[in-house]
Design a protein that fits this description.
heterodimer, A: alpha+beta, four-stranded antiparallel β-sheet, B: alpha/beta, 23-stranded mixed β-sheet, six-stranded antiparallel β-sheet, 41 strands
């Protein structure tokens, strides 16, 4: 009878198992980071869209009624289990006529996992009829 | 036994290769997932940066609007920096959260724009069009603003066209506005000739705005039935709109009051004028009333078959009733009391009339034949318009004013908000003669004249080549065209003595070229725009003894082109031929041998009641496409 002509040796089996396990472990470790990246990008895009829609809405409002301290309020928006809370700020701009141009900031606050994220969109609005 | 079982030869290392393959596949899968995830993240950041760049570009446009609202000459004079609007990332406050190096720029300086590789903006407060960046035509009394913003590796270029119309509204009232249906409010695309016998085509319509200062809540503006408002609806209190009513602009409620023009009707009495004119006294009677010069009725006036204004003014002390035939032509009808007009009248884009009433105005056509009117209607009382097609503006100013529409179309034509009548007395002799004061627009550089001359004799001799083959009451008598690139500027002359111009594409037999004009610059005959520009540049360089800067060359090229295609040449011809037309057809004294009439001037311009900033409006806002 001859030995060693078929099957794996113990050493081969141990080595293979170890190697595959380490690889699987390394790859599995990448997944949470990748998942968070995808989630972060998705939530950022969602918050961009919410901010832009609020800015669009503000362009439709009576310009002269938009004054610092008298900003419109917007309810939080829930999408895919994440709550986005908008905060709007209107400000008069140094060196510019507040009856013609005002600064508007829309900040969207939300949480991805335990991390609080903020997305700020700013622009100037003008009073001319369109 | 053992010898009966056959084993394949042992493949040494096969197990390792298998393991390596499995590992490689798993690694590939893992890294693909990670790469996709980070790519996704990058894309989302890029999208976010692009949105921030768009906001920054829009903010730069808004900052430029602040400049031009406060200084309509902004961008025309000054240093490069003075002609440039810039928003840079500050250390605190707005835009401080943007990445380092983010910036928004808008400049009116062509040289600076060239060095920065960005498009420039144009301030055109002249009456005619000019060519802006990328060959875009910037109409008269308007601004073309182009802002470029950079945030990280994202760039946004946004443009806005700001127009300064003479009057900002189609319909404006201090009191309520009500429609029982069939109301259409829009404005006419600039330069479009129209004939009010037909509704204007949708492609020729632009936003026209309706405003009420009434404080009676939702009854301030009530639009029942089917109505179409192509612009904004603005109320100082509320509005009531039925579902069939379409408003294509914004609906603004609780808006601030608009200050409407207030005219004192009695100021237009020729007898109380600072420089009194002896008016022709008119009385009620049958037939059509033709109004030339200054006319006055000392009592209520009734006209049976329409009023035709031939550059005249009719002042009525009391009420005016036009029982049929309507009002048409160029001139003004002023009444201290009520004005009531029935009948369709004729109204094309060259008509320009004003109806000014201290009392109420009623203007009615029939359901089968709408009344037509081109001009301005101003009342201090109630305005009742039924089955009417109006090209112009409605103004109902006063504490007791209100407006009621039934089946009425209002096409705002801002040019109708001002009217100027100048009657110099004797008419031009018959025949085609150039007016003695017709000279080409002078071109200068640094105060020195650019030698230029025209010889229109060839054109004069061949005038019939330009006669419009189409005939009819709405057809122009002559057509001249001048080419700029692929665009033809058309000058149409008609029997009423005016000229219009429109833009059309395609070849045309009525083209007026340099050869026909006999145009000479620096003593050299030129036949095309490019030839004219080359001659002017080389001539000016020789004249001043130095090489011109890019900015100077661009400015000279623009002026040369304007002079060549749409300036003094074609307009001069149009003016000359218009006088010819008046002399032959439009005047009561075609020979010019009659008694000279007493000259008089009369004008009304509603734009004087508004500041430029109040009249400014955005006609286009969006991504810049070259």
């Amino acid at each position: 009878m001859r030995y060693g002509t078929k099957g794996f040796t113990l050493v081969e089996t141990i080595f293979s198992t170890l190697f595959i396990s380490l690889t699987v472990l390394a790859i599995v470790n990448l997944f949470p980071g990748a998942y968070m990246s995808v989630k972060k990008s998705e939530t950022r895009l969602q918050s961009d869209m919410i901010a832009q829609s609020i800015l669009e809405d503000m362009r439709m409002l009576n310009f002269q009624a938009l004054t610092p301290g008298n900003e419109p309020t917007y309810d939080p928006v829930s999408l895919d289990g994440i709550e986005y809370t908008p905060t709007v700020t209107v400000q008069n701009l140094a060196g510019m006529d507040p009856t013609v141009v005002k600064g508007v900031s829309v900040e969207i606050t939300y949480r991805v996992g335990t991390l609080e994220q903020k997305n700020l969109h700013e622009t100037y609005l003008h009073s001319l009829n369109q | 036994m053992h010898s009966l079982i056959k084993h394949p030869p042992r493949s040494r290392g096969a197990s390792l290769a298998t393991v390596m393959m499995v590992v490689a596949m798993m690694l590939t899968l893992g890294f693909t997932v990670v790469a996709i995830a980070f790519n996704h993240l990058n894309l989302s950041f890029k999208s976010s940066n692009q949105a921030q760049a768009d906001h920054l570009a829009e903010a730069t446009l808004a900052k430029a609007i602040d400049r031009i609202v406060n200084d309509q000459e902004y961008g025309l004079l000054g240093t490069s920096e003075e002609k440039t609007v810039r928003i840079t990332r500050p250390t605190s406050g707005m835009f401080s959260s943007l990445p380092e190096g983010s910036e928004g720029i808008l400049t009116f300086d062509q040289d600076y724009a060239g060095t920065q590789g960005i498009p420039y903006s144009t301030n055109n407060r002249t009456e005619g069009p000019v060519i802006g960046v990328g060959g875009i035509q910037v109409l008269g009394e308007s601004f073309h603003l182009v802002a470029t913003a950079k945030v990280k590796n994202c760039t946004s270029v946004m443009e806005a066209i700001i127009s300064v119309p003479q009057f900002p509204f189609s319909v404006a009232a201090d009191g309520e506005i009500r429609s029982d249906g069939g109301l259409l409010v829009a404005s006419v695309r600039p330069g479009v000739p129209y004939d009010l016998n037909y509704p204007l085509h949708e492609d020729d319509l632009r936003p026209g705005h309706l405003v009420s200062n009434s404080k009676v809540g939702d009854a301030a503006i009530v639009l029942s039935g089917e109505n179409k408002i192509y612009g904004d609806l603005q109320s100082s209190s509320g509005v009531t709109l039925e579902t069939e009513t379409a408003v294509f602009g914004e609906v603004r409620t609780n808006a601030a009051d608009e200050q409407l023009p207030r005219l004192n009707v009695e100021d237009y009495d020729p007898d109380t004028d600072e420089d009194p004119i002896e008016p022709n006294m008119v009385n009620s009677g049958a037939g059509t009333l033709e109004v030339e010069g200054y006319n006055k009725s000392a009592a209520n006036l009734t006209v049976d078959n329409g009023i035709v204004l031939s550059g005249g003014v009719l002042y009525v002390e009391g009420d005016l009733l036009v029982s049929a035939g309507g009002v048409s032509g160029k001139g003004a009808v002023i009444a201290t009391g009520n004005v009531t007009i029935y009948g369709d009248g004729e109204a094309t884009s060259d008509n320009q009339a004003a109806i000014i009433a201290g009392g109420n105005v009623v203007i009615k056509g029939s359901s089968s034949e709408k009344a037509k009117f081109a001009g301005l209607i101003y009342t201090e009382g109630q305005l009742d318009a039924e089955n009417l097609r109006l090209a112009g503006v409605f103004v109902a100013a006063g504490d007791n004013s209100s407006v009621e529409f039934t089946n009425t179309e209002v096409y705002e034509d801002p040019s109708k908000s001002s009217i100027k009548i100048e009657d110099a007395g004797p008419t031009t002799p018959a025949g085609f003669q150039l007016p003695p004061n017709l000279t080409p627009d002078a071109m200068t550089f640094e105060g020195q004249s650019i030698p230029m001359s025209y010889d229109l004799s060839e054109l004069e001799a061949n005038l019939e080549n330009y006669r419009n083959p189409s005939t009819g009451p709405t057809q122009p008598e002559y057509l001249f065209k001048a080419q700029s690139g692929s665009v033809f500027f058309t000058y149409e002359l008609d029997g009423a003595g005016g000229y219009n111009y429109a833009l059309t594409n395609g070849p045309d037999q009525f083209l007026v070229d340099g050869s026909t004009l006999g145009l000479e610059l620096f003593g050299q005959k030129v036949n095309s725009v490019s030839e004219a520009q080359a001659v002017v540049i080389s001539g000016v360089e020789a004249m001043v003894g130095r090489t011109l800067t890019t900015n100077e060359i661009n400015e000279l090229n623009t002026n040369t082109k304007r002079t060549f295609v749409s300036g003094s040449a074609a307009l001069g011809l149009a003016a000359a031929s218009a006088e010819f037309t008046i002399a032959n057809e439009g005047s009561a004294d075609p020979t010019g041998e009659g008694e000279p009439e007493e000259p008089f001037n009369w004008s009304l311009d509603l734009s004087e009641f508004f500041s430029d900033s109040k009249r400014m409006e955005v006609v286009y806002w969006g991504e810049f496409v070259q």
